[in-house]
Design goal:
- The complex is a heterodimer of chains A (240) and B (351).
- Chain A is built from 5 helices and 14 strands.
- With 240 residues, chain A is α+β, with helices and mostly antiparallel strands.
- Chain A is elongated and about 55 Å long.
- Chain A starts with a strand and ends with a strand.
- In chain B, helix 1 runs parallel beside helix 4.
- The chains are: A alpha+beta (240), B alpha+beta (351).
- At the A-B interface, strand 2, strand 3 and strand 4 of A face strand 15, strand 18 and helix 4 of B.
Chain lengths: 240, 351
């Protein structure tokens, strides 16, 4: 295995670069590295942020030196074993497709030459790997969208897309975690909150999790929405 | 019981509660937030003897007008906006006492972009993910997750007599020979090159350190968009997204740099030519749109020694203030003065 490149990101962070592609195995290695480093509880290391292909290690420059840290990071990287993930933690997001909550479903269907039902079936089939979180708090960068569902992003982004909107843009699918401007085609909505700052567990997902969308009827959608509002909703999580 | 509050009479242009930021949540896509000019906030806390990292107010362009509902120590730092207390000038970069009912008016100097107001005991809004910093985009932290409005009442923590003060002070004198830190000293802004400096032409690396960049109007707590000599890429501006930090200098395809600031996204898909070092960010945070900044490349070691020096400077002010408390108490003379049969305690101290 190639040694990662260590790159400076200012005076308080080091980028540990394992590669420069989007690849599940590479990403797995990045996450293993972050977990391994975090488990050492090194004083002065604030956190290890996994991304597609590198880890950003934030540290307190008053507590550890660059030289010490570089040695440690390389040692942790070389100690990683190439073990494929044993189990997948899948979080299921009940999603209401189409209608008012998914206004672009007809467009995606016509662009891809599929029926609305086929779009829903293809989109809600796979378990998508969460490569990393970013863009907005709790937002999952997911891979694994069926190439048949790829649709260019909106030429003019919407000024506001409600939180929970499920969309497709390019070869990616995503769920908005905040009401933000957005260029995705919105095909549905999940009442589950991926980010809830006032909760004791503000983030539903972490890098390395999987997400599966489950098509639900209006009745179930409203039931979940109510439970989320009351704070009694328990996320559907399976280890597969 | 402690329920001191300060009331917002006028909020200013954009005033939020900030501390040293939300650390340890970037892997969840949560920006750090925190004071843009961390130095100004750190000093205001030291002047009041607050815990390091206590929360204060950050005001942008135009400061707030506040009414103290109880006697409260405060300190105004950052841009010197010539604050007044009940119409009388009070010094910036000093611990001052606001009496119950008195009104602190801050404004704008037109020179800097941000001023900071700390209070004895700190602003005591709830901790969210370990921080009181406001992240307005996600309505998180601070005072109800938003900028202050007229009528808001901010809860304050328990205060004590500021270091260097003796009873009866309304303004605590600064230790001899101590000057508020200079912003001009931070120019040019020091930059550590990387992580994608190798994706730029050598002319671009040179231009970054040799030409001026103007801060544009499109500059806020998320990032400062600069305009100046184009920084050319060798093989395109896009990368497979990686992590960002506060200070990252991101360069999209147009070749104009964007310096990511406190509320920036945690990941990004543009090349980053370098990163402004943490000790120099206060100057950028204070630079108004239309003004120029320059950069200078330094090594990581240089950046880290600047950071150590920063910590030493804070400590030396702390030590000098603690020392001042002792000498002033020793030198002070106490008398009891009786006027028309009424006794008054009087302290006389040398100036």
């Amino acid at each position: 295995m190639r040694e990662p490149r260590l790159l400076p990101a200012g005076d308080s962070a080091i980028v540990v670069e394992f590669g420069d592609t989007i690849d599940p195995q590479l990403n797995h290695r990045v996450r293993q590295f972050c977990l391994s480093l975090t488990s050492l509880n090194v004083p002065g290391i604030i956190e290890a942020v996994p991304t597609y292909r590198s880890a950003l290690v934030q540290y307190d420059p008053l507590a550890c030196t660059w030289a010490e840290l570089s040695d440690l990071l390389l040692k942790v990287a070389s100690g990683l074993r190439e073990v494929p993930p044993q189990r997948r933690r899948v979080t299921v997001l009940p999603t209401l497709y189409g209608g008012e909550k998914g206004p672009d479903l007809p467009y995606v269907a016509s662009y891809t030459g599929l029926s609305a039902e086929e779009v829903i079936a293809l989109h809600s089939g796979p378990a998508y790997l969460v490569y990393m979180l970013g863009f907005t708090p709790g937002y999952p960068y997911m891979g694994g969208l069926d190439p048949k569902l790829a649709v260019p992003r909106l030429a003019t982004p919407r000024l506001k897309t409600p939180a929970g909107s499920v969309g497709i843009g390019g070869a990616q699918t995503g769920v908005y975690t905040l009401a933000t401007p957005g260029g995705f085609h919105i095909i549905g909505h999940t009442p589950v909150r991926l980010f809830d700052p006032d909760s004791t567990a503000p983030f539903l997902l972490e890098a390395g999790n999987f997400v599966r969308f489950r098509s639900v009827c209006m009745e179930e959608y409203l039931r979940v929405e109510q439970a989320v509002g009351l704070g009694t909703y328990k996320p559907e999580v399976h280890d597969e | 019981m402690n329920n001191r509050t300060v009331r917002v009479l006028e909020p200013g242009f954009f005033t939020t509660v900030q501390d040293r930021g939300r650390l340890g949540y970037r892997r969840f896509g949560m920006p750090s937030s925190g004071a843009m000019d961390m130095r100004a906030l750190d000093y205001s806390n030291v002047l009041l003897g607050n815990e390091p990292g206590s929360a204060g107010l950050e005001a942008t362009l135009l400061g707030p007008v506040l009414e103290f509902l109880e006697d409260t120590w405060f300190s105004v730092t950052g841009d010197d906006c010539e604050p007044t207390l009940d119409g009388k000038r009070v010094p910036s970069w000093h611990a001052c006492l606001g009496r119950k009912g008195s009104v602190l008016r801050t404004g704008s100097s037109g020179r800097g972009a941000r001023l900071y107001i700390a209070f004895g005991g700190g602003v005591d809004t709830p901790l969210v993910m370990g921080s009181r910093s406001t992240y307005v985009a996600a309505r998180t932290g601070g005072y109800l997750g938003r900028a202050l409005r007229a009528g808001d009442c901010l809860p304050l923590g328990e205060q004590r007599l500021p270091p260097g003060a003796i009873k009866g002070d309304l303004v605590v004198p600064l230790p001899e020979a101590w000057q508020p830190p200079s912003y001009a000293d931070l120019l040019p802004l020091r930059v550590v090159l990387g992580p994608q400096a190798d994706r730029f032409t050598s002319e671009a690396i040179c231009a970054l350190s040799s030409s001026e960049y103007i801060v544009t109007n499109d500059s806020d707590r998320m990032g400062y968009r600069l305009s100046g000599e184009t920084l050319k890429h060798t093989s395109g501006a896009d990368i497979v997204s990686d992590g960002t930090v506060v200070g990252s200098i991101q360069v999209p395809g147009h070749g104009q740099p964007i310096v990511l600031m406190a509320d920036c996204q945690t990941t990004g898909g543009y090349t980053k030519i370098g990163c402004v070092i943490s000790t120099d960010l206060p100057l950028l945070a204070q630079t108004l749109p239309g003004r120029a900044v320059r950069f200078r490349a330094v090594t990581v070691d240089e950046a880290i020694s600047a950071r150590r020096q920063y910590a030493l400077n804070l400590h030396s002010l702390q030590a000098a203030l603690a020392n001042q408390s002792i000498t002033r108490a020793q030198n002070a003379k106490h008398y009891i003065l009786t006027v028309s049969g009424k006794a008054h305690k009087i302290t006389v101290e040398p100036i």
